């Protein structure tokens, strides 16, 4: 064989081998059953669509447009619009007892009727006996009729009804302190003192207060 023939044959073999390698690289890989397997590059991309979104919560409660939520702000009371000297004047207190001095507004003890009045934006006033040191407390709140009705119903359960106050009135005594509660069309009046051993003890003070409110 001539040198040129050998060279041509070698070139042909090299070209054939190169073509075989190219075909092998392009062919897809096969599995055990000789079927082509998909490669990672040929896998379809996962793009979220409408079907991929979470389904709506069927148990989620929605507000009923026709329902109004109950009020969380009960009757807070209005400003009484009076000073302690107007609730009972100096002359009136002198007529009741000339040995009593005005102390002005005060902070009632917790869990007392006067403290309940104060919680309704009420006015609390105190006078003191100059000799005994015993006090006379008058507390007044200006409230809506429904609130007054509810408070009067509570007073009726724990107190005795009193007709001499001129309005819807009640009297009770706790730990030696006599307390009168009087309900008008728009006011709740509480009068307390250790000097009130019975309902009559608060009667004159009640008349003064009610007269000044009208």
CATH architecture descriptor text of one domain: 2-Layer Sandwich
CATH topology of one domain: Phosphorylase Kinase, domain 1
Topology as H/E string?
Answer: HHHEHEEHEEEEH
> How large a portion of the residues is in β-strands, by DSSP E?
15-25%
Q: Radius of gyration from the CA trace?
A: 47 Å
Walk across the major sheet and give the strand order. 1-2-3-7-6-5-4
- Derived structural class: alpha+beta
Whole-number average pLDDT?
78
In the CATH scheme, the class of one domain would be Alpha Beta
- State the helicity in percent bands: 25-40%
What does this structure look like?
This is Iron ABC transporter ATP-binding protein. Residues 1-27 form the signal peptide. Residues 32-54 have a biased composition (Low complexity). Keywords: Signal. This protein is an alpha+beta fold and 214 residues long. It has a domain at 84-213: MucB/RseB, C-terminal domain (Phosphorylase Kinase, domain 1), CATH 3.30.200.100. It has helices at 3-26, 84-87, 90-96, 113-119, 145-158, 203-213; strands at 100-105, 123-129, 135-142, 160-162, 168-174, 177-183, 187-193. Strand 6 (177-183) and strand 7 (187-193) form a beta hairpin. Mean pLDDT is 78; it is low at 21-27 and 37-73.
């Amino acid at each position: 064989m001539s040198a040129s023939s050998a060279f041509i044959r070698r070139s042909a073999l090299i070209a054939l081998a190169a073509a075989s390698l190219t075909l092998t690289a392009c062919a897809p890989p096969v599995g055990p059953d000789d079927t082509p397997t998909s490669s990672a590059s040929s896998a379809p991309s996962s793009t979220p669509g409408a079907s991929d979104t979470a389904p709506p919560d069927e148990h989620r409660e929605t507000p009923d447009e026709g329902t109004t939520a109950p009020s969380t702000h009960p009757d807070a009371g209005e400003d009484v619009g009076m000073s302690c000297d107007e609730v009972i004047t100096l002359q009136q207190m002198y007529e009741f007892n000339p040995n009593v001095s005005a102390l002005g507004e005060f902070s009632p003890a917790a869990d007392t009727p006067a403290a309940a009045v104060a919680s309704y934006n009420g006015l609390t006033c105190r006078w003191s006996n100059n000799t005994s040191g015993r006090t006379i407390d008058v507390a007044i709140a200006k409230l809506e009729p429904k609130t007054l009705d509810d408070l009067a119903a509570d007073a009726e359960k724990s107190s005795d009804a009193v007709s001499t106050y001129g309005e819807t009135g009640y009297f009770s005594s706790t730990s030696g302190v006599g307390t009168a509660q009087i309900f008008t069309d728009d006011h709740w009046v509480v009068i307390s003192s250790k000097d009130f051993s019975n309902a009559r003890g608060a009667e004159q003070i009640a008349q003064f207060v009610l007269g000044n409110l009208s």
